[in-house]
Amino acid sequence: MRILLDENIALSVQKALQGLGHQVDHIKTLGLGGIANGEVYEKALQGYHLFVTNDRHFLNSDIFPPRPALGIVFLRISMADPTKQSDALKTFLTIEPEVRFIGHLTIMRSDGFEIQ
Fold first, then answer.
1. 79 burial type by CB count under 10 A (0-12 exposed, 13-18 middle, 19+ buried)
2. What is the 8-class DSSP label of residue 57?
3. Mean confidence (pLDDT) of the chain
4. pTM exceeds 0.85
């Protein structure tokens, strides 16, 4: 699966998810740090299956709707705790089939998640 991580997700998460066999890009390593949310969203629509962010603006599905081929994960775990970010995402991607979250907004906390 192709995953795009927003700049507010710890860089170490990229390597952790790659260890599961996913193709993972990070806005910062793509040289796109600081671009507007609309540009980040457009980048996510370019062939990614999942976009992971900690930016509350992406909770607004009127402006940034999940698409049939793109799921959005709003990660409510601080970048200050990259291990918790990695662990939550690895668990989620291991136990949930893609069909449940691609095309949906998922709100993830360290103690669980809600797929909308």
1. middle
2. G
3. 95
4. yes
